[in-house]
Structure formats: C-alpha cells, structure tokens
Specification:
By secondary structure, this protein is mainly beta. It has one helix at 6-17; strands at residues 26-27, 52-56, 61-64, 70-74, 83-89, 98-106, 111-121, 135-140, 146-148, 153-155, 160-167, 170-175, 177-180, 183-186, 191-198, 207-208, 213-214, 220-226, 230-231, 238-242, 253-261, 264-274, 278-283, 289-291, 298-302, 305-316, 319-330, 339-342, 356-360, 368-370, 372-375, 378-381, 384-391, 398-413, 419-434.
Length: 437
C-alpha cells in the first residue's frame, strides 16, 4: 500500500484553497488511464432508506435524496428521453475510509451525454479524526471494488463536496487520511494508542482504493494535546495517550497530529473522553457527585428513531443523589457520531423528541433540579444543551457525552402536587454508559 505522499498532502490543501472556484473533473468509468492496483473488495450495501424518485428528460433536472444529503443535477441535453431516476440510502458505507452514509443511484448503467453533478452535504461529525480537505467521493464498481474520484469540488462554507460523472452506481464519501480512534472513552489513568492512516493517490486521476495504510512518518510534524494527560515520546504515526488519574475539568482531551509537506500543513484531531462508567455532575461549581446505573442505558425504538433513558443514583454518608436523563436519537447518521440537543419545553407535539433531565441531592427528592425554569410566571428552557459525543449503535456499545444547564429550575413541593419554583442553579455534568438493551 502507498504511504501518504508529499505531493498528495500539498495537492489536497491546495485543492481545498481553490474550492471556491467550484471546478469539477468529469469521471468516466471506462477511462483507460485509471491507475491499476490491488483493490479492496467489499460487500455491496443493502437499500435501507426512503427511495426518492423523479422523472427527468432532455431539459434536465435535479433530484435530492430523502434526507437532502445527496443532490444530483442532470443538465439539459444529458438525456434524450424521459428517464425515471432515483436515489436511496444504503445500510452501510463499505467504502475503505468511508464516512457518513452511502447511496445507490438508479438505474445502474444509465449514462449521460453530458456529465451530471453529484453533491454530498457533509456533517462536522463526518470529518472527525480527519479534515474537510481530506474528503473525497468514491463509487463502487461492478466487481465490488471502489474508485475514488479526482479533483472534487469542496465548499467548506456550504459543507458540500461535488464531482461530475457520466454514470450511476453506488456512491459514498471517504476520508483519505485520518487518525484512529477519532474518539475514545477511557477510565482515569488508562491509555489508548492513536494511529494515523491514509489511502491517497499521487496523481490527478481517479484511484482504485486499496485500504488504509499508515502515513509515512517523515510527514509527521508534531503531536500535541489540549487538556490533561500525557503523550508518549514516539513522534511517528503511532502515539500513546495516558489519561490523568481523575476525571479532568477539561473533557474530552484533544490529541492533535500536524502533518507537514513543505510549507503546507494540515491537522487531524482525536477526542479522548475520560471518566469511568456512570454520570458525574456538580451544582453551582460545587464538588463533583458521581452516580452509577445498575440497569445501564436503555434504548427504546420510537417512530423513525430511538429514545434513550437512564436512571442513576448514589447513596453515601450525608448524600443521596438521583439523576434521570432522557434524549432522542434519530436513526439517520446518529450512530457513532456526535450531535447537540438544546433544552426545550415539553408539549404534546414533541413527546419523546426532546432531551430531559431531573436531578436531586436529597433523599426526599426535594429540591428537584430540572431543564426549565420559571420567570414572570412563564416557563423557559434553560440555556445550554445536551451534547452526545459518541452514540453506539448496538447493545454493549458505548454512549458518552456532556450536559450543561445555565439556569436549571429549582422546584419545591409544599404539601400539594403543584410545583413551586425557587430560583435557578447552574449544573454541568458528564456521562458514559453501555447500551444495556
């Protein structure tokens, strides 16, 4: 496998700097000048998303995937007759280095007299461990290999990457270089190895993907850390991060790798979340309170997504704390990625669609801290949010994140069932669980 090359690093950064020109190369699957190599052969994805269909004729037209991630623009004159075209998300992105979802463009084998433009809209989480400048688009061939496209047009403002093609097949985005793991959750004092990989061509043609190999160490300029912990002295493409012996205030720690080619640099980042399984929180900058959940995290299917529920608690001398934390998780692009949920008021139309949290540090359950507060006899959601840093997709997978409430409402009950608000409190917390069911 090729090492990450000097020419490629410079070319990628230069291409990104020119992305505002919106230039795109036309890809022909039968181009005899494509680079032969030992290919990575993968499974073919299975359709899983909603099918979007449109009829497009000689005048041209546009079709969007059901979630608007993929836009296909067919110009006038590309088709000679009306043609039903469709796009559908697949269950897995099997492309080497793949990130985000893969899509099937139908009918397979359809060709155009003029190039069509395929545009992917990427999320920030889909560049975790990598960088937008290192994204490319690839398609799967009939023999189940993958061809990465050349000179993709990147727009970091619109979060889009585009390429022109004359054919339909299965298409996906990939990271041409990244560090792994891009995210990890470890206990205090635990260590994790971080490696840098790449699968990048040295020419401007479309490239047969071979799978990821370690980046050549001569292009490693510097490893660094933002936050607590320490790095091993190895300055090659593999380094070891060791967490501090306690849960740090700055969490997660950010481990960065700066690659350098001549005067050009690009930085890859990994986030390392440090805490044991459970949930910790503090009120008004007070001491941290550590709680655990004997039952673990429950994930309940709801509509087109999931609803997560966890109850934690701790009982010790002078303290009895309980926490109830619930939040929604959309099936689309929410596994193994990060996302942010602001606090909202609950109503009949958003049931099981918003994050909710209640906390108590008293055995009698009073006072109760919650995600909304009262002001001038009206309820308001607390400023702040619930941040999911990693959301596993299967039973036994990890889920971890943080939460912050700038104005958590303090509720007291006095004899009746109606709550009485008694001011606000600032609450921050972190959690890490395994999906129990």
């Amino acid at each position: 496998m090729n090492k990450f090359s000097l020419l490629t690093l410079g070319a990628l950064i230069t291409a990104a700097s020119l992305s505002c020109q919106k230039t795109t190369d036309v890809l022909n699957p039968d181009d005899p000048n494509t680079t032969p190599d030992t290919p990575a052969v993968t499974d073919v994805g299975t359709p899983s998303g909603e099918l979007a269909t449109a009829t497009i004729g000689p005048a041209g037209g546009t079709i969007l995937s059901a979630d608007s991630t993929v836009r296909i623009t067919i110009p006038a004159g590309a088709l000679t007759t009306n043609q039903a075209v469709s796009v559908q998300e697949l269950d897995k992105n099997n492309c080497p280095g793949g990130t985000g979802a893969a899509f099937r463009l139908l009918p397979h084998g359809l060709t155009f007299a003029k190039p069509a433009t395929i545009s992917f809209r990427y999320q920030d989480a889909e560049t975790d461990g990598s960088a937008p400048e290192l994204l490319r688009i690839a398609y799967q061939t009939n023999d189940r290999t993958w061809m990465a496209t050349a000179h993709n047009s990147l727009d970091t403002t619109a979060h889009t990457i585009k390429v022109q093609t004359t054919h339909f097949s299965d298409w996906a985005m990939l990271q041409t270089a990244y560090i792994d793991p891009a995210q990890a959750a470890i206990d205090p004092s635990q260590s994790v190895d971080i490696n840098a990989y790449a699968d990048i061509s040295e020419n401007d043609k479309e490239v047969l993907l071979k799978g990821m190999d370690q980046i050549d160490s001569k292009y490693v300029d510097q490893w660094s850390i933002q936050g607590e912990g320490k790095l091993s002295k190895n300055l090659g493409t593999r380094i070891t991060y060791t967490a501090p012996d306690r849960v740090p205030d700055v969490n997660p720690a950010i481990v960065s790798l700066r690659l350098k080619s001549g005067e050009k640099t690009i930085t890859l980042k990994a986030r390392i979340f440090i805490m044991p399984e459970g949930l910790i929180f503090r009120i008004n900058k007070g001491p941290w309170i550590y709680t655990t959940s004997p039952l673990g995290l429950s994930r309940i299917q709801h509509g087109t997504g999931y609803f997560h529920m966890v109850q934690t608690g701790v009982t010790m001398q002078g303290l009895s704390a309980t926490v109830s934390l619930n939040w929604p998780g959309n099936l689309k692009n929410r596994f193994n990625t990060s996302y942010i949920l602001p606090w909202q008021l609950e109503n009949s139309s958003n049931e099981l669609q918003i994050p909710m949290i209640t906390l108590s540090t008293n055995p009698k359950g009073q006072p109760l801290y919650t995600f909304y507060y009262e002001q001038n006899k009206a309820l308001h959601p607390s400023p702040g949010n619930l941040t999911i840093l990693y959301n596993g997709g299967s039973v036994g997978d990890k889920v971890y994140g943080t939460f912050y409430l700038k104005k958590a409402g303090i509720i007291e009950y006095s004899g009746g069932t109606d709550p009485m608000f008694d001011g606000v409190a600032e609450i921050e917390g972190k959690f890490r669980f395994k999906i129990a069911r």
